[in-house]
Specification:
The complex is a heterodimer. Chain A is built from 18 helices and eight strands. Chain A is α/β, with parallel strands linked by helices. In chain A, strands 3-2-1-4 form a four-stranded parallel β-sheet, with helices on both faces. Chain A has a four-stranded mixed β-sheet with strand order 6-5-8-7, with helices on one face. In chain A, helix 14 runs antiparallel to helix 17. Chain A is globular and about 70 Å long. In chain B, helix 7 packs across helix 19 and helix 8 runs parallel beside helix 19. Classes of the chains: A alpha/beta, B alpha/beta. Chains A and B meet through helix 14, helix 15 and helix 16 of A and helix 2 of B.
Amino acid sequence: MTDTLTPILTQTWDKPMSWKLSTYRANGGYDGLRKAFGMAPADVMKTVIDSGLRGRGGAGFPTGTKWSFIPQDNPNPKYLVVNCDESEPGTCKDMPMLMASPQLVVEGSIIACYAVGAHEAYIYVRGEVAHVIRRVRAAVREAYAAGLLGKNILGSGFDCDIIVHAGAGAYICGEETALLSSLEGFRGQPRLRPPFPAVAGLYASPTVVNNAESICSVPAILVNGAEWYASMGTEKSKGAMLYSLSGHVAHPGQYEAPLGTTMRTLLDLAGGIRAGHQLKFFTPGGSSTPIFTAEDLDVPLDYESVGAAGSILGTKALQVFDETTSVVRTTLRWTQFYQHESCGKCTPCREGSWWLVQVLGRLEAGQGQPGDVDKLLSITGQMSGLSFCVLADGTVACVSSAVKHFRDEFEAGYHTPAWELFPYEKSTLWASDSASSPKRGAA
Amino acid sequence: MTDVTLRIDDVAVTVPKGTKVIRAAESVGIEIPRFCDHPLLDPVAACRQCMVDVPDAGNGRGMKPQPACALDAMDNMVIKTAVTSDVARNAQEGMLEFLLINHPLDCPMCDKGGECPLQNQAVSNGRGESRYGGIKRSYPKPTELTDILLLDRERCVLCQRCTRFGEQISGDLLLSLVERGAASQIGTGPSHEVSYFSGNLSQICPVGAITSADYRFQSRPFDLVSTTTACDNCAAGCSLRVDQRHGDVRRRLAATNMAVNEEWNCDRGRFGFRSQSDALTAPLVKVDGELQPASWPQALSAAAAGLKKLRGQVGVIPGGRLTVENALAYARFAGEVMKTANIDARARRGASAEEAGFVARQARGVGVTYADLETARQVVLVALEPEDECPMIFLRLRKAVRKAGLSVVTLAPVASPGSVKLKAKVVPTAPGDEVSALAKLKLDANTIVLVGERAGGLPGVLSSVEAAVQSAGARLAWVPRRAGELGALAMGCLPTGKGLAVDDMLAQAGQGSLGLVLGGVDLDDLADPMAARQALSKSPFVVSLEARPSAATDLADVVLPVATLAQQAGTFMDWTLTARAVEPVLSPQPMADRRVLAELARRLGADLGLPTYAAAHEAAGQLIAARAASARVPASPRQSASLVTHEGALVLATWRTLLTPSSRCLDGTDLTPRPATVVVGPNVASQAKLSVGLAVAVAGPDGASVTGPLVVDLGAAPGVVWVPDAPWAPGTVVTLGPAAPTTPTPNGQGGER
C-alpha cells in the first residue's frame, strides 16, 4: 500500500535537521537549479509546461502556462511572488513543507525567476506563523551566504534576490491580487481584473504569482525531467501532490501521492477513521469546497474527477469528520471564519456571511425559525457567483453542500440544539467511547 | 477610436470601444441600479448592485453575471439587465436586500431622504419586504470627519466613492476604509491637510452617510426650489445648483457642467454663501456724520447732489464681483454720466498700468479652455497657485496629470501642497524673478501658460510672459481671482488715457480731491486696506452701492442697497473668456446695480441707455463680440524687472488661500482654513537660527506681523519666506524671528478657530 506514496517534496522531511541547507544539498538540493542554468529560460519554461504541473493553490491553472503569460517585451521589471499565505481551515500543506524543507521554495523561486526573466522574488508568508517565517528567512540567509542568491548565482551570471514578507493576518491576502496590494503596503483587498497580474501585477509590473507547493515542485521536475513528472497522476492532472488528512483519522498528516489517488486509499494509508467510528463527511480541498460523504470515497482526487463529482480539489485539505460531528456546528464555525475574513469590499460577501452566521447560530442553538433552512439556501444563492472574488463562493460552498447532504440536521435546529443531538465532547480526541455525557460541550 | 455594437435588453447599442456596459445602457435609456459606480471615478465593482446577465460575451460564450460598471462593452456582446433577465433581477434584488439588512430605517429624519439613490433604488429595484429579523449594526452617531462633514456610519453602504474621490480627484486622502468584513467602515485617512473639496463627498455619497454640518436637518429636498446658476466665488465659472426655501439659500451643490467643473466644486463655492438676513434693505444717508435710513428718492437725490458738486472730480471703483450687465452700467455711468476715465474694477493688489494693457488684450483673446488643459503636454504656472486661486483648474490639471500624462511646471517660491498633488516640477522662484525663471523654460506649441493675478504686482512679469508665449507659439491665459473681474474689464471698467487706476484714485481721494462711487468693494481686498479706509474718510463724497454692510458702509456718505447675486440675473465671464449665466434664485428681486445707477443717472439728467436687464445683457454681449473681433492691441512696451533687490534681505511670498480667514463669503460658515505656516528654505532657517516647528513671526514694513510654525522646504527659493494670506504684497521685504510668547486669552483659545 505504501508504494502509493511518492515522496518528492517530502523526501527529506525525516532527515536530521532537514531544514538546513547542508541537509538539502546532501540530498540532491540545487541540482535542479544547476540543470536549469544549463538550459535556456524558454526551455526551463517548456519543461514545466510539459510536466503538466498545475497550480497547487486551489485553482489548478497550469504553472508553466502561467509563466508564459509574462510579456517579455515589457520594459518594467518582472516579479515572482510566492503565495505562502496558507490560511484556509483544514489546509495545512505549505506550512509543514516550509518548516521541513524551506530550501525547496528558495531553489524553486530561483528557477522560476530564471524562466520568466525576473530578478526579484517575494515570498509572502502568512503573518501568524512566526516560526515558519523565521525558518524561511533563515533559509534565505543561508542561501545568500552560500552564493545561491544575490549576484551571479553559481557563476551563471544570473542575479536573483528573495524577500520574505510577513502578511498581517488576513485570509483574503491569499487571493493573488489582494496579496499584491498587501505586498505594496496597501489594504489587502482584491483588485479588478483586467489588468491581470501577468501584465500589471506588483508595482504595475508583470508578475507571476504561484502557490508555494507549485514552486517547490519545480526543482524535482528539472532534475528528473518533464516526462517523469507527467508519468504520475492522471491524463489531465499530472504529477504528485500533498494530501493533508486531518480530523477524525487515526494518523492525520501529509500524504504525498499521485493525483487521482482516492480518499479510500488515503484513508487506508492514514489508518482509517478513528477506532470505533464511521466517516460522516469530509472536505476534498479545504472548507471552501463542497463537502463529500462516504459515497464519494472512490472519487479519484484529481481536478477533473472531483469537479465532476460536484466539488473542487482545492488545496487537497481532507478534513475528516465522523458520525459524532454536528454538521450544523461545523458549518457555523466555517462560516464564522469567512465572516471574520471577508475583506468587506463587496456587498454579498460582507453582508451575506454576516447574515448566514446569524441564521446558523440560531439553528445551532435549536432556536431556528421554520423557513430558516430555505433562507440559508436563498442567502447563499444571492451570494454565489456575484461577489468580487471567490471568497464568498467558498462561504456558499460549505453551507449549501452541508444543507444538501444533511438537511434534516439543519431542520432539527428549529427545536433542538445541536449540542444535544451531537454532544460536542464526543467528537474530541480525548472523548472516551463509552461515556456519553448529556452536558453541553464547550462551543 | 473604433466603435463596438452590442445588444442590451435586445436593443442594439453602438458605443466607442472601452465604454463600460453601464454607460452603454444609459445611452439607450436603460438604467442599471448602482451605488459605487460614478462616471468620473475609476470602476471598483464593490457594491455589486449593477450585476447583469451576460449570455454572450461577444465570443459566443456566456459569462457568469458581471458588474456592468466594470465590464467593457464588446462587439456582438449580449447583455440582459433586470428588465429581461431573472438572473440579473434576482442578483439585483438580492444585493439590495443585503445592503438594507444593516441600513437603518431612518429615512424620515435623514437629510438624504427624498434624494437618496438607496431609497430610490430600494423602491424601484428592491423587494417589498425585508426577511432580516436580526439586530442591525450600529455605531455612535454622527462622527465629525471635519468641521463641516459628518459621518453616520450605520447608513454607509461602503461604496468607497468618498475614498476614491480623495485618491483620484482631489488628491487629499481625507478618508479611507478601516477594519474589515462586516465591521468595515469609513474612517479618517492619512492626510492631515484641510481638503478644499470635501463638500463633494456629501454630494457623491449615495446614501445619507456623509452630510454637511451646515445643511444637516435644514430642509427636505422636496421642499427646496432649485436653480442652476454660476458660482460667484472665483473666476473658474463653475455651474452651481442653488437650493432655496422660504426666501433664503439653504445649500449650494455642484451642478454638472462637463466643460468646466464636471461634477465637482470647491468648498468655498459650495459653502461660501451668506444668508439674506444680513442684506441691506434700505438706503442710508449720512446726516451729521451718522448714517440714517432713508427713502429711495431721498437717498438718490442726496447721491446725485453730492456727485454733482464734485464737478467731474470723481472715481468709480466697481470691484470684481459684478455681472457684466452691472459692470457695463458702471462703465457708462463713469464715461457718459460722470464724464470721467477714472474707472477701475481691479479693487485689489497689483493693479498696475502694465497689467491694464495686458488684461485689455487678454479680455479680447481667444481663450484657453478646460479641455485644452487636458490635451496640452505642458502647463506652466506663473504666479498662480491653482488649488487656492482657481480650484477647478487644479482639479482639471490633476485629472490631466493622472490620465493624460500632462506635466505641470510651476514658478513658485515653495512646493505647495497643491503642486505636490499635481506632481509639478517646482522652479524655485522668488516674487519678481519669474522673468528670468521663465527665460530658462522650454515652451512650445503644446504648452499653455497660466498666469495669475499676482503677476500684475510684479513689474515686467506679464510683458515677459506675453513675449515668451508669443515667440514660442504657446498659449496663454490670465487667471484672475474674482468672478466678475474679466467681465468688468471687458465692459471697459479699466482706466484709459489719463484715467486713474484704483490705487491712484484712492491716493487722490485720501488727499480730499476725488469723490468715489464704489460698487461692492471689500476694502480688505485692496493693496493697503488701512490707507483705503483713510481715503474713504477723507474723500469729499462717497457713494457706495452694496448688498451687505461692509467696512465701506460706515465711511460712505450715501449707501444704496443693491440686489444680492441670488436676487438677480446676469452674466459672468470666467477665465476661459466664456459667459456663465447667473440665474435669479430668490424673489422678490430688488434693484440691481444697473437699475440703481440708471436711477442715479436720471437724477443727474442723463440716460444710461440700459432701461431693462434684457437691454443691458444685449449691449454687453455686443460689446464682447465687437471687442473680440477688433484687432489685437499692440504689445505694451517691455518693462524690465524693477523689483528692488535687497542684498541679503528676506522677500515675502504670499497668496490668498482658498479658505482665507479674511474672506467675507466664508463668514458664518464652519469652514476651517489651512493652519498658517511660515515656509522658508534651509539657508534662511539656519541663518536666522530658527528650528523647524518653532513659532516664528514674519514682520512687515508697517510693523504688523504674521505668526506660524516654521516649516523648512528644501527646495524653496533662496531668500524667500512664504506665509499664507499676508497683509503685504509679494516682494515686500520682511523680517523673520521667533514669535513673541503669546499671553493666553481668558478663554484660552487665542484667535484659533
